[in-house]
Amino acid sequence: MEFTTADLCDDFPQLIQVAQPVFREFGAVARFSGPIETLRVFEDNALVRQVLESEGKGRVLVIDGGASVRCALVGGRLASLACGNGWSGLLVNGAVRDSAELNQVSIGIRALQTAPMRSGKQGTGERGGRLTFAGVAFVPQAFLYADTDGVVVAQRSLLE
């Protein structure tokens, strides 16, 4: 369904949280939405790969990388994997790399910054649970909406 985050803010001001405008836009899809899946990692993307290897079913993977921009948590290969497995988008509280390649993949991506260094591969991290960054609480099964104006979160779908 079509939406703009501005319209969602106007129509549902009591139901949404608006993320602080700290994210840069990547990926070939400017507007995306879906139920949230959460992941907490720090400078290690092995668990990111593991989650993106699963069927996305239109979900948005929200990754709290602790705001580290020393290395990238998502690059071209993982973005392509996410797209191929049906994820609608990725929100990364951290860095991405391969930005030119990311912009060719049919998925929406928001991240703090780019970093050319790859991350560790130890598999540390935590899947599920509440994440809080950019002034918003991200909870599994809540809904994330993103477009060129920003990122908003609601506890239920607003497009039904």
Write the layout of secondary structure elements.
Blueprint: H1 5-11, E1 16-18, E2 24-26, E3 32-40, H2 46-52, E4 60-64, E5 72-74, H3 76-84, E6 89-96, H4 99-102, E7 108-114, E8 126-127, E9 131-133, E10 136-138, E11 143-147, E12 150-154
Parallel strand pairs: 3-4, 4-6, 5-6, 6-7
Antiparallel strand pairs: 1-12, 2-7, 3-8, 3-11, 9-10, 11-12
Describe, in plain words, how this protein is organized in 3D.
The structure is a single chain. 41% of the residues are buried. Strands 1, 2, 3, 4, 5, 6, 7, 8, 11 and 12 form a ten-stranded mixed sheet that branches. The protein has a two-stranded antiparallel sheet with strand order 9-10. The chain is α/β, with parallel strands linked by helices and 160 residues long. It has one domain (5-153): Ribonuclease E inhibitor RraA/RraA-like (Glucose Oxidase, domain 1, 3-Layer(bba) Sandwich), CATH 3.50.30.40. The chain contains four helices and twelve strands.
Describe this structure in a few short sentences:
This protein is α/β, with parallel strands linked by helices and 160 residues long. It is built from 4 helices and 12 strands, in the order αβββαββαβαββββββ.
